[in-house]
Design goal:
heterodimer, A: 555 residues, mainly beta, 18-stranded antiparallel barrel, three-stranded mixed beta sheet, B: 448 residues, alpha+beta, 16-stranded mixed beta sheet, two-stranded antiparallel ribbon, 6 helices, 31% strand
Chain lengths: 555, 448
Amino acid sequence: MSKTITTTFSHLAVGVAAALGTGLAVPAFAADTTWAGYVENATYLRDGVGLSKFRNTGQAQFETVFETESLRSLRLNGTFRGTYDGVYDLNDGEFGKGARHNYLGENWHDNSTLSSQALLTPGVPFPCENDPTLCNNLDGYMDHKESDAKFPDFNDKLDFIRELYLSADKELTNGDVLSFRLGKQQVVWGKTDLFRVLDVINPVDYSRHNIYDELEDIRIPQWMLTAEWRMGPNEVLDDSNLSLVWNFDKFRPNNLGTCGQSYRILDAGCFFTSSVGPVPIIHDVEEPDWSLKNTQLGMKWEGVYGDTTFSLNALTYRQQLPSLHFRGNPLGFNPAAFNPADIATYPFAADGVFDIKFPRVNLVGGSVDYYSMNMDAVWRLELAYTEGEEMPRDTDGHKETDMLRYVIGFDKNIIIPELGTRSAFLFSTQLFGEHILDHEADMPNDEDNWIATMLFKGFYKNNRLSPQIIIAHDFAAEATVFAPSVSWTPDNHWMFNVGLNVKTGGKETFPWSAAQLPGFNDFSGQYEPLARFTNGPIGVANQEDELQFTVRYSF
Amino acid sequence: MYDNDNKDTNMLKKTFFSAAIAMTMAAGVQAADIPEEVIQQSFYPYKEGVPSFNGLQPGMTINQSNVDQFKDALDPAMYMFVKNGDTEIKVGETTDFALHPSYVEATRKYSADVQLGAGQGEISPTIAGRPFPQEPSLDDPRAGEKLAWNYKYGYNWGDSAAIMPFYWTTRDMASGKKERTIKMNFHFLNFTHRTSQEPYPKIEPNPSELFRGIYVQVLEPFDVKDTQLLIHRFEDDTKVDNAYLYLGFQRRVRRLSTGQTTDAFLGTDVMIEDFEGYNGRISDMKWTYKGTKHLLMPMYNHNEMELDTETHQDEDGYQVIAFGGKGGCFPNITWQLRKVYVVESEPVDPNHPISKREHYMDAQTFIIPRNITYDRKGDMWKSWTIGQAHPDHHLPVNKGTGVAIDDSFTMIDIQAQHCTTGQFKGIVDPEMSPVDKFSVQNMRSSGR
């Protein structure tokens, strides 16, 4: 159970007032602080590999509510997390700085195509502990050391501070409320599970457990200021709210997992530490420096109209996935003169094939929830149109293209007495769509692709026993994940969960132009390097079938 | 639609009534449409004396040995519990739970011409007060429906109130083991039918014509912390409630389908539809008046009860009601003999998880302290007790509010031998339930 502590603040009060620019004379005030948290062990066993996660997490969160007459409410929230993943000590043959792969992509496909047999070297685990050149090339992104993977929250970004923000509400004379929240925080837009359409303000750490952990636990909090003008009801709308979010933190991209980690989405981490012969795949990472113009800004108007809740969103931000910019041979490239033994005849520069960049993206979108009385079900629609994103392609590294992403969700509660419980089962399904407006034939991503997800969750023994199954299918990758699990919550403190995570698919290939050069003449499909985009996060993890145990003690 | 009426006419009528309220309240004019004896009988049933039952005396205890003598003063479930030795009933004096004078006055002025519509869940425009103060008649086939409207538009928690905090504990009745305790805050607000807290009779703007809001915020334990529930009920009873759920770990508001309102709320034995005795639309049920009885009801003075010294402490020195009996499933309170309307409600939806509820409505207040739920086979399934505390013997802030304070509850799953108990700190204070607390945006901003 959480603990409440009452104390008195005065200096902090002055700081709060100053920080918010309220100019209010805030007297010393009493404050109630509540603490809560948990300790957790997650032990996952991967088929053919053994231990893939032995993650031990402690998390504590507090909320201090200040009593002040000047503001409607004033509170300080913080969440701190410390994690130690023992898999790098307990299974160091598979994961960690000493792990070695026989070929690139060993963890998701066979060695039957030329690209992984002869053209590309295996990725180098934790390059900063094995290869200074690669470490230097990747400086600032995906250059974690093994200790960073063991203790992912303890780094110079202070990631152990999951959140720390101050919130203040001020009621205006007309009854409207102005609200500010300043600090390290998560800002959540949208209404979808597993995959994100509008929920893109915070980057995501996929190295924790691919796409499968709650976004709450894998969003990378950012230092932001949010301001809201809560207008409440008017003659037309039951609720209306305008909000601004200013992400003034230094840009951070998604963490895809460094080579050597047990979870590396799309196996990107190992691709980035691979080489074509002696030429590193990555030459440099151009992370935007902090500057005012590099900050990110969003606006949302949302409301309730009858049975419909809606939002309209606009955001200028940076692409959180890396865009690979091809670096051609400065001397030019003559296919007829290509000699695999002579780097000078290669089509790309001798000191690295790609630079990683994170382009500016502008997004407009919206979302709608609608309750259908006839179906006794809820429909969710979410849409995002972006300009400025860059998609990978074969012959030119990337292309800027407008993108359209959308999701249609359907939620219904169903009572099925035949399944032995009077509690309703939750049935939730979603269809994600992605359309590349300026599609090219050499893009590994289809012009249109869809991912369907389904959640079916039941409740027994007063919700303390809860089985569920999650299924997700990627149509282009022809890849599917099945994730059944059962959780048991005997009391207010303990929770036990056992689950399976089984994938199929990931067999799609995509021809790579480098394999077609004279001397190789392989025009067949290749796994490496482009098919990782075709097969997506489910297909590329096709050999990561796991049995997963989690035990948590909350306080 | 209503009898001989149409929507435009209704709107016009509402406008007229609003003006009429303002005029009559300002001028202190009393309409004389409802005979005063009807008002007196409806709101002050004990003015001429309290009911009696042969052998029943305040201060005595009904237990396994003497329960048969008092069988007719108990509802069937309570009789069964006492007969089984699961609990005993301490008898208190019958006391006057007089509602706030503004509600009585509103009834005098605005209920004279209230009538049911042609269809289930339809009623002519109402402004405030008890819509049908007349005694129900077994000869009236729609008497049950009228009583249901009296409950819906009853004074209940007044115009607004909060339960802060509210402890729900799930228990294994056989072993007495406490399983989970959920700590929450509940808030209630009437957008319309207001009589005692400004503004009245309604809050504007109110574009969707909401009647009432219920807002719930979960404080503990960790796995459900920050869960929030918001229910909007419409003035138009034929319209399905809008319900919203905020899950702390998802950090977003989801719409709820009504299937979840008949589901176990947070794994307890209570459905959202059970809240306050019945928390749904009149039109969702077929209502039948079964008669008037004098029965023992869980109504008492909180400050004179046995209190739980462990669960809650605060600077007010307030403590919650203690529980005992089999499995700790029964509140340690006194019960008093009261005039009760027995009403049955049968779900219109054949797929509803229950076949019927028996409601024991307190005739003076129209709260529902006792309910018995029957499963789809017709067997007794759940017993729902909501202990009511007199506001003048509770927190000082509640004195004079005329609100029968929901103060303790137990929902017993008789078939599963399982129960959920509730311990309240009910506060009638409009400052604690401002209008914007009942908005979707408040859920987002109050969450993490």
